């Protein structure tokens, strides 16, 4: 299994671009799994029980690892007990998806992967943390880092149905705080271990193919490597 993840501040366009890349890879005959596709659009009555069941099963099956993660997250001084639980649940859910697909052939493509989960921990952190603390997490083969201007990010967040992330709930300060959290994630030992990283600036431009042209170039490099 090849693991490809997207990361970026909420509102940068990760889910949209992840969907385009999935279609491009499938057009080249590759088997691509996107298990998180459409999750945010599900009714909470479906999404929450589904996620809770996956988290509980994975946590029970990997109790020691889950407790270590809890300890690591707690050491960051999360803003509240609820934030501690959310951060742990986010990581465990992603790990459960990776664990489910790790013995399968093809590509596992995540718009909210391990890197983004570590970002969520730092977003709610109030203290410094040793940058080796997340080294035991599975490392993606490729990390696509998406960025966009603050005004575009805010516009996209305001256009969402409901408040899907803590960044939206924090209002004007959320985007700046998110960028700080992303920089902290990039200083971790986990990030340093990622063998390949690609950057995309999602300006929403359609000139000369815009962002799709840049995505196509990344897809061609993936095909070449395979």
Q: Which features would summarize this protein structure in a list?
A:
226 residues, alpha/beta, Rossmann fold, five-stranded parallel β-sheet, 55% helix
Q: Could you characterize the architecture of this molecule?
A:
The protein has 226 residues and is of the alpha/beta class. The chain has a single domain, classed as 3-Layer(aba) Sandwich (Rossmann fold), CATH 3.40.50.300. 55% of the residues lie in helices and 10% in strands. The chain contains ten helices and five strands. Strands 2-3-1-4-5 form a five-stranded parallel β-sheet, with helices on both faces. The radius of gyration is 17 Å and the shape is globular. The termini are close together.
Which secondary-structure class do the elements indicate?
Answer: alpha/beta
How many separate domains? 1
Radius of gyration: 17 Å
CATH class: Alpha Beta
The fourth-level CATH homologous superfamily is P-loop containing nucleotide triphosphate hydrolases
Tell me the number of strands: 5
Distance between the termini: 12 Å
Task: Note the main sheet.
Answer: 5 strands, parallel
Figure out the total of helices: 10
Oligomer: single chain
Quote the CATH topology.
Answer: Rossmann fold
From the coordinates shown, what is the CATH architecture?
3-Layer(aba) Sandwich
Strand order of the largest sheet: 2-3-1-4-5
Strand percentage lies at 5-15%
């Amino acid at each position: 299994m090849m693991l490809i993840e997207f990361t970026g501040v909420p509102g940068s366009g990760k889910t949209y671009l992840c969907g385009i890349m999935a279609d491009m890879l499938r057009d080249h005959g590759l088997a691509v799994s996107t298990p998180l596709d459409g999750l945010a659009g599900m009714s909470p009555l479906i999404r929450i029980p589904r996620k809770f069941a996956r988290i509980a099963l994975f946590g029970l099956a990997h109790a020691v690892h889950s407790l270590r993660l809890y300890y690591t997250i707690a050491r960051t001084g999360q803003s509240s007990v609820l934030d501690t639980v959310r951060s742990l649940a986010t990581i465990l859910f992603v790990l459960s998806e990776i664990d489910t697909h790790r013995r399968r052939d093809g590509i596992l493509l995540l718009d909210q992967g391990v890197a983004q989960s570590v970002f969520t921990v730092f977003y709610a952190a109030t203290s410094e943390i040793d940058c080796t603390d997340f080294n035991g997490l599975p490392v993606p083969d490729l990390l696509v880092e998406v960025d966009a201007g603050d005004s575009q990010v805010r516009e996209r967040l305001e256009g969402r149905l409901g408040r899907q992330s803590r960044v939206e709930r924090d209002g004007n300060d959320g985007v700046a705080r998110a960028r700080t959290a992303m920089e902290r994630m990039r200083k971790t030992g986990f990030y340093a271990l990622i063998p390949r990283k690609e950057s995309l600036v999602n300006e929403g431009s359609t000139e000369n193919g815009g962002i799709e042209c840049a995505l196509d170039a990344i897809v061609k490099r993936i095909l070449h490597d395979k």
